[in-house]
């Protein structure tokens, strides 16, 4: 397996982001392209929301470098067939389109309906280009082929849903970048194990970009990825889930993307259901997300982010086990122990804060 090419993609992407992010931040501050704090947001000072420019540029440049160096090769070291090379650029171009949608929202503030309509159109075009869910796997049964009139809405729902789930979880310094970076690393391992080099190259580049971006985005953040970055990251992860993981009719393979991305998926689903239950529009922003609830419970900013990281690692470790990766069960055990430890620390922290708040004044 040509591992060096995946390492090259990872390293080039990380270096591009590390170099370009300060320049993007400086440009945003000078141009007045920053996010002003309000009562719903956590940050206390204006923050540039153009970090997605660096993330996209790092990912694209890394893939171009690998392509120019002849690194689009399969598990045997042979040049990828046209359909697999097309998949790489198909996901990348789709990611570019979603990046531009998010960037337009960052700059001009699109209405929820306009944004959703454009997302559906772009996701439908991606389906037409080959990013398709075209069968349904069931445990202990043969795969059920899906006609286009069913496969299209399922694919669009998956792509648009993951784009918005990633955007919605981008509420604290380093949260979306870290959660998505962990998911990208897990997808990289699974894609390599399943012999899907095209998918592996994409997530290797994305993982490098997100790691480099965390240098400036982890608490206290210097810059945000913005909607442009969140849309690009969400679509790329969702697209790789389709072209790289859902490749066989095994039920475990079909379920892998949903397990790896369980944290943003479940957070978005719970928020939508809660809003509907209270008669609210699912598109109106509020403080019902997991990170908002943890902050309200008394956790610090960093501890909230680290706890959600541990949740993502736990889900990813079980995905490795389900995929049959060597020692996968050991990884799942380690992920469970890590989640248990962080949960214990969270419980201790909340209990200590409660004691401090309700302790009687000294005489």
UniProtKB/TrEMBL annotation:
Annotated TM spans: 6-25, 46-68, 88-104, 116-137, 149-168, 175-193, 199-218, 230-248, 254-273, 303-323, 329-347
User: InterPro entries of this UniProt entry?
Assistant: Glycosyl_transferase_4, PNAcMuramoyl-5peptid_Trfase_CS
Q: Where is the signal peptide?
A: none
Checking PROSITE patterns in the record gives: MRAY_2 (PS01348)
Where is the major localization of this protein?
membrane
Q: Which GO terms describe its cellular component?
A: plasma membrane
Q: Enumerate the residues binding Mg(2+).
A: 167, 227
Q: Name one GO molecular function term.
A: metal ion binding
- A Pfam family recorded for this sequence: Glycos_transf_4
Describe its membrane topology. Answer: Multi-pass membrane protein
What are the record keywords, sorted?
Cell membrane, Magnesium, Membrane, Metal-binding, Transferase, Transmembrane, Transmembrane helix
Question: Localized where?
Answer: Cell membrane
**Origin, by domain of life?**
Bacteria
Cofactors that this protein relies on: Mg(2+)
Q: Name one GO biological process term.
A: lipopolysaccharide biosynthetic process
| Protein name as annotated | Undecaprenyl/decaprenyl-phosphate alpha-N-acetylglucosaminyl 1-phosphate transferase
Species of the source: Aerosakkonema funiforme FACHB-1375
């Amino acid at each position: 397996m040509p591992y060096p090419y995946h390492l090259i993609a990872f390293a080039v992407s990380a270096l591009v982001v590390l170099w370009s992010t300060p320049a993007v931040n400086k440009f945003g501050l000078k141009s007045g392209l920053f996010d002003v704090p309000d009562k719903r947001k956590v940050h206390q000072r204006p923050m540039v929301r153009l970090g997605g420019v660096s993330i996209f540029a790092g990912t694209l440049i890394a893939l171009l470098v690998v392509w120019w160096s002849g690194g689009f090769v399969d598990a045997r070291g042979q040049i990828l067939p046209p359909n697999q090379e097309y998949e790489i650029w198909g996901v990348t171009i789709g990611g570019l389109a979603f990046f531009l949608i998010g960037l337009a929202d960052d700059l001009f503030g699109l209405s929820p309906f306009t944004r959703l309509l454009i997302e559906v159109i772009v996701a439908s075009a991606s389906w037409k280009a080959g990013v398709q869910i075209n069968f349904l796997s069931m445990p202990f049964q043969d795969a059920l082929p899906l006609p286009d009139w069913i496969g299209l809405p399922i694919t669009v729902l998956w792509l648009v849903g993951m784009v918005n789930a990633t955007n919605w979880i981008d509420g604290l310094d380093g949260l979306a970048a870290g959660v998505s970076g962990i998911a990208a690393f897990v997808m990289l391992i699974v894609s390599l194990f399943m012999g899907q080099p095209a998918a592996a190259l994409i997530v290797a580049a994305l993982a490098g970009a997100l790691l480099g971006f965390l240098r400036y985005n982890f608490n206290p953040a210097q810059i945000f990825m913005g909607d442009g970055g969140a849309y690009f990251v969400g679509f790329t992860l969702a697209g790789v889930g389709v072209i790289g993981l859902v490749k066989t009719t095994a039920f475990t393979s079909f379920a892998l993307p949903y397990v790896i991305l369980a944290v943003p998926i479940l957070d978005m689903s719970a928020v939508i259901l809660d809003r509907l239950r209270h008669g609210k529009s699912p598109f109106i922003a509020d403080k019902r997300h997991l990170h908002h609830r943890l902050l309200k419970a008394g956790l610090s900013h960093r501890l909230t982010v680290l706890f959600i990281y541990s949740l993502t690692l736990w889900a990813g470790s079980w995905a490795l086990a389900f995929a049959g990766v060597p020692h996968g069960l050991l990884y799942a055990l380690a992920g469970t122990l890590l989640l248990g430890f962080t949960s214990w620390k969270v419980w201790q922290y909340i209990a200590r804060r409660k004691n401090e708040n309700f302790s009687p004044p000294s005489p």
